[in-house]
Amino acid sequence: MTYLFNNPVEFADELIEGFVAANSSFVQQVSGGVVRSTISPAGEVAVVIGGGSGHYPAFAGIVGQGLAHGAAMGNVFASPSAHQVYTVAKAANNGGGVLLSYGNYAGDVLNFDAAQERLIAEGIPCRTVVVTDDISSASVAEITKRRGIAGDLTVFKAAAAAAASGADLDEVWRIATAANERTRSFGVAFGGCTLPGANAPLFTVPEGRMAVGMGIHGEPGIGEQDIPTADELAELLVSSLLAELPPTIETANGQRAAVILNGLGSVKYEELFVLYRRVARLLEAAGVTIVEPDVGELVTSFQMAGTSLTLFWLDDELEKTWRAPAYTPAYRKGSVLPGEARATVAGEEEQHAAIGEATVESREAATRLLAAIEALTAVVDANVDELGRLDSIAGDGDHGIGMQRGATAAAGAAREAAAGGAGARTLLAAAGDAWADRAGGTSGALWGLALNAIAARIDDSTVPQSRDITAGIADAVAAIMRYGKAELGDKTLLDTLIPFSESLTSGVDNGDRLAVAWARSAGVADAAAKSTAALLPKMGRARPHAEKSVGTPDPGAISMALIIRAIEPTLTTSGTTTEGENS
């Protein structure tokens, strides 16, 4: 379990503060994460990485000379928000463009892509390499859907070495892409981790058993077996990776490979050395020349008991990138000349929606919206453990805490906006921005989109009308489908939101007051959420283990239904829902 923490909601912020205080010669803090505290050459491509906290030394621990120029740091097991990625990339930019690289998780893709669009729109060249090294997470036929685990390091290092050599952005992208294509990883786990403030681990493995193919967020593996001896585990790991060579390699015999034996948190160095002893012998027996192996904790998962093996198949070009020196808080290789300290980077601070003029009527409507946001926050708080439990069955178990972070941030921003005299539109937009930025992850991005879509349909001068609300919710559906790439039936929150939106719109169009139509449609949402138990997930972290979720409703669909139902009383008790149009 996690022993040392204060407020779990503030855990990620506090760990960043402590990390920077302990490593100020390497990094400095900017809004959204960290960047190098040393000067990089003007015009050098900036390699910006990132992901959820809880995986140290990934990702901040490998920011420094010879490796990343910056790392966007999300909340625990949640991707950084698009704003966090953007601000870190902006601060890290040396004038040569930015290469973004990260593990292939839905929330990361959504937020890094949005940040890339914003950077390019501002004239900063930007490209992306998504890491897909975990062979257990998808078949060869669907290799682009694989997740990134400890193989992140080989791709990040290749990109950074190329950037340090003076390569331009296209060349850095090419080399990093080649590194990804020649990296394969496979892992196992013996037990799960407990996140700060949680009273149970994300997952458990039966006593004496081992999960095979486990992901770094606790995603269930592809199988389970008795715990083997160290030598037997080495044989499983090596044979699994040798069975899938990159397409450009016909046989392992005569090849060179960098080897990473990674501990996930509770399997310690002494155990890893016992395991590596046999790994090295097996690879040598297969005719593989091992180049500068790394044994230790490179990508962890709090106290998760597990390990993974990574093979990075080298050619002459990639071997140079692997051998290149690096000097970072957690990863050091070769000899690096001390870098000159850079001035503190101002970066871009968190942006808050400007509070402009608002009519009395709109400020009153904003107060009712605040009541709705307070209600949804309360229902998320009351159900955070159950939402996490549902998510842990086929996912990583963090949906509850992610929703709690987002809702809490939204409520805080809404209260601040209301206290400043904000109208309805400004208050709801502030809540949406705060949800997306503080929650991170897929759900954070999508809820931010949803609240902003509704905000765009109202203003700060009039009372929102019923059809404004129904149109805003329909816009939210469209935005989530566009950015999240999901559809009805994919076992996501859309399976609740779409039928709710259609029912609500129909009721209002037929002359029902919003409160009446909402109450009826909340029942539709409840039924739709429960019906997702029969569906197979086609998106997100549950997709590789779709069969495990059959019989269990989607946590995103359930949280959406809970929130819809929680908002209902705020409509019926506000005293403002009149016959016809007013909300």
Report what the structure shows:
This protein has 583 residues and is α/β, with parallel strands linked by helices. The chain has 2 domains: 8-333, Rossmann fold; 360-572, DhaL domain (Serine Threonine Protein Phosphatase 5, Tetratricopeptide repeat, Alpha Horseshoe), CATH 1.25.40. Helices cover 45% and strands 14% of the residues. The chain is built from 17 helices and 15 strands. The chain has helices spanning 11-22, 82-92, 106-121, 152-164, 169-181, 230-242, 269-285, 316-323, 360-392, 399-419, 424-439, 441-455, 466-484, 494-509, 514-531, 546-549, 555-572, and strands at residues 27-30, 33-36, 46-53, 70-76, 98-103, 126-131, 183-191, 209-212, 223-226, 256-263, 289-290, 294-296, 305-314, 326-327, 332-333. Strands 7, 8, 9, 10, 11, 12 and 13 form a 7-stranded mixed beta sheet that branches. The chain has a 6-stranded mixed beta sheet with strand order 1-2-4-3-5-6, sandwiched between helices. A hairpin with a 2-residue loop joins β1 (27-30) and β2. The longest helix is centred in the middle third of the chain and has 33 residues, at 360-392. The protein is globular and about 75 Å long.
Observed structural traits:
583 residues; Rossmann fold; Serine Threonine Protein Phosphatase 5, Tetratricopeptide repeat; 7-stranded mixed β-sheet; 6-stranded mixed β-sheet
> How big a fraction of the residues is strand?
5-15%
**Rounded radius of gyration (Å):** 24 Å
The fourth-level CATH homologous superfamily of the largest domain is Dihydroxyacetone kinase, domain 1
Task: Tell me the number of structural domains.
Answer: 2
Record field, number of beta strands: 15
Q: Give the terminus-to-terminus CA distance.
A: 47 Å
Average pLDDT taken over every residue: 92
CATH C-level of the largest domain: Alpha Beta
Cα shape: globular
Seen as an oligomer or otherwise, the chain set is single chain
CATH architecture type of the largest domain: 3-Layer(aba) Sandwich
Flag low-confidence runs. Answer: 574-581
Indicate the percent of residues in helices: 40-55%
What structural class should be given to the helix and strand makeup? Answer: alpha/beta
- The CATH topology of the largest domain comes to Rossmann fold
Largest sheet: 7 strands, mixed
Number of helices: 17
